[in-house]
């Protein structure tokens, strides 16, 4: 597929995906979702990058939401197909084996907020704004917001945000747990995202993928079901060469050499070696 709404760049094992529809405040049209679907499906079948930064073209919005002009004329059947595509994209963000960091500068509303919720974690600038304002349009979150927001901020806070449709600034988003860290500007945010993915890149990609799968599979389940998912992934780790290398390196007091790992420049030894 020739991407017309995405910019994809690779550097040092990390892929930066930029949603680029600045004239529409980077709104999620059917075309944007189809291109994200195509890109993420390719990552799922591999080879996967060591990490993904998901951001958007500079402007007032990260992703202002789903494309209202398209939705306004949709039939119920078309709306269902559009929602299913949005849900598929957000599921793929969870299912790709590498970590995905959302970098939010500006408005992340509606579908834009739902994309953020599906990433592994999010960084934001001080001018970032989040919200699920669909009820103002006579709609509800349809790309996973009703499901994921309550898991992240708790049921009561999620209900208040969804029912009122109000916006929250970056500071409140951090207090709620929507974002992991807030930065003064876009450049600082992106540099921090590259740095954290650089540190992750020095670890076992297999172990990171197994941990990600266990975290997402166990979310929202019972403790017993979650522990069963975790135990399956834990057992799988024992079948890998990375586990043998990692434990051998620990006992030998040396840095592990995992296939494809990219040690960050000047990185500390792993915390277990402290």
From TrEMBL:
It comes from the Bacteria. One of its GO terms (biological process) is fatty acid beta-oxidation. Keywords: Lyase. The keyword Lyase applies. The keyword Lyase applies. GO terms for molecular function: enoyl-CoA hydratase activity. It catalyses: a 4-saturated-(3S)-3-hydroxyacyl-CoA = a (3E)-enoyl-CoA + H2O; a (3S)-3-hydroxyacyl-CoA = a (2E)-enoyl-CoA + H2O. Belongs to the enoyl-CoA hydratase/isomerase family. This is Short chain enoyl-CoA hydratase.
